[in-house]
Amino acid sequence: MIVMDNIRILLKERPVTEPELGHFMVETVEACIPKDGEILVSTIYLSVDPYMRGRMRDTDIFGKSYAPSLEIGDVIVGAVVGEVIESKDPHYKAGDIVETKLGWQTLAPISANLARKITPSLAPISTALGILGMPGLTAYHGLLDIGQARAGDCVVISAASGAVGAVAGQIAKLKGCRVLGIAGSEEKCDYIVNDLDFNAAINHRKDDIDSALTEHCQDGIDVYFDNVGGSILDTVMNHVRDGARIVICGMISEYNLTNPEVAVRPTRALLNHSARMEGFVVSDFAELMDESLAQMAKWVSSGQLKYREDIITGIENTPSAFIGLLRGDNFGKRIIQVRDNPFNDV
Ligand SMILES: NC(=O)c1ccc[n+]([C@@H]2O[C@H](COP(=O)([O-])OP(=O)(O)OC[C@H]3O[C@@H](n4cnc5c(N)ncnc54)[C@H](OP(=O)(O)O)[C@@H]3O)[C@@H](O)[C@H]2O)c1
Questions:
Q1: Residues 134/140, Cβ–Cβ less than 8 Å
Q2: 135 Cβ inside 6 Å of ligand 1
Q3: Using 50, 70 and 90 to split pLDDT, how confident is the model at 258?
Q4: Number of H helices, E strands in the chain
Q5: In angstroms, what is the span from residue 326 Cα to ligand 1's centroid?
Q6: 280 CB under 6 A from ligand 1?
Q7: Which domains does the chain have, with CATH numbers?
Q8: Which of 37, 98, 136, 219 is deepest in the core (most CB within 10 A)?
C-alpha cells in the first residue's frame, strides 16, 4: 500500500482579537484510509471564510453561536473542492470531483454523506466554493427570502465586492432594484459600478456614509443586506424607509472584538418605519439548495451573474490568507489552490 501524506492546519491557540500566524500550526501526517461509507478526498481548492473566526472562540461575548467551537488541535473547518482518490461508498468513484467539508487539509477521508458531486462541465470547479456554493446561496436566499427584494426597491449592500455581497447586488439588479454598494477601496467601488452594474458605490474608508446615503437613497432604503454590522449598520438604520427589510447576514467588523460595542438601539427605527430586521444562516435553506443552485448556474452560464475569485496558491499560505480576509485584503471570493486543477478551468 502506498503511504500518502496529509498536510493539515490546526488551531494552536485561540485568537483573542485579530488572528495571527502563531495561532495556527501546519503539520504533515500520514493520510487515513477511508472506512465504509467514506471517500478519500484530495483537496484542489479550499475556502477561507469569515465564519471560521467564530469557530476559533470558546466563549462568545455575543451569546451562544449557531455552530460549535473548534478545540485546540483541531483541523480548521471549511469547505473544499477535491478529487475522490478512493471510494468506499457506492455513490462515488475515484476521479469524481466533490465539494465537501474537509477543512484546511490536503488529503483525508470524509463521510460520503457530507459531499456533493460537482459537474465540471457546468462551470469552473472552484465556483463550488463561491458563486455556486455557500456564499452564492447565502446571497440568493438572504436577498430574496429574507430581504424580499422586488423591482423598484432601493437596496444597499455592504462588503459589496466580496463573495456574498457581489452576488447579492447582481441578483438585486436582475430583479429590477436600484443597488448601492458599500466597499473598502476605490478599486472595489469601481468594480461594482463598472463591471457589476451597481448604480452607485460608497467607499467606507473614505466617504461620509451618512451623506452618501442621503444623496443616493433620497426616498430611503427598502432593503439593507448587512455583511458587516458595527457603525455602518448604525448609520444605515437612519435611512430606512417604511416597510424596510434589514437582512442580517454577517457582522465582520465585529468578529475580532473582545467587548460588544455600544450603539444606538435599532428598535426605534424599526418601529417608526414598520421595518423588519431578520438574521439567517444559509443552512436554514438547505432543502432549497438544489433548486437555487440550478437557477444560479443558469445565470452564471448566461453571463447574467459575474464573479471574481481571489486565488492564492499553497496550503501553507492559508492562515495569512484568512487573516487578510478579515482585514479586507481580498478582492472577490478568496480561495486557496492546494494542487493542480485537472480541468485547468479557472
Ligand atoms: N448568514 C450566513 O449564512 C452567512 C454565510 C456566508 C457569509 N456570511 C457573512 O457574510 C459576510 C461576507 O462574507 P464573504 O464570505 O462574502 O466575505 P467577503 O465579503 O468576500 O470578504 C470580507 C470583506 O468584509 C469587508 N470587511 C472586513 N472588515 C470590515 C470592516 N471592519 N468594516 C467593513 N467591512 C469590512 C472587507 O471588504 P471591504 O474591503 O469592502 O471593506 C472584506 O473584503 C461576512 O460577515 C460573513 O460572516 C454569512
A1: no
A2: yes
A3: confident
A4: 9, 15
A5: 8
A6: yes
A7: 5-130+307-337 (3.90.180.10), 134-283 (3.40.50.720)
A8: 136
Mean pLDDT (whole number) for 295-323: 98
Cβ(91)–Cβ(112) under 8 Å? yes
Residue where the block lists cell 478512493:
86
Give distance in angstroms: CA of 113 to centre of ligand 1: 29
pLDDT score of 344: 85
Mean pLDDT of 218-240: 98
Confidence category of residue 260, pLDDT binned at 50, 70, 90:
confident
What is the amino acid identity at position 179? V
Cell numbers found for residue 181: 454598494
CB of 192 within 6 A of ligand 1: the answer is: no
Nearest residue by C-alpha to atom 32 in ligand 1: 253
Query: Torsions phi, psi of 178, nearest 5?
Result: -100, 130
Q: Which amino acid is at 102?
A: L
Measured by CA distance, the residue closest to atom 18 of ligand 1 is: 162
The CA 86 to ligand 1 mean position distance, Å, reads 36
Ligand 1, closest atom to CA 280?
Answer: 1
Count of CB atoms within 10 A of residue 126's CB? 25
User: How does DSSP classify residue 21?
Assistant: G
Cell of 192: 461594482
Is 178 touching ligand 1 by the criterion CB < 6 Å? no
DSSP class per residue in 294-328? HHHHHHHHTTSS---EEEEE-GGGHHHHHHHHHHT
Ligand 1 pocket: which of 57, 167, 228 to mutate (most atoms <8 Å of CB)? 228
pLDDT over threshold 80, residue 244: yes
Residue pLDDT, tens place only, 59-115: 766 677 778 899 999 999 999 999 999 999 999 999 999 999 999 999 999 999 999
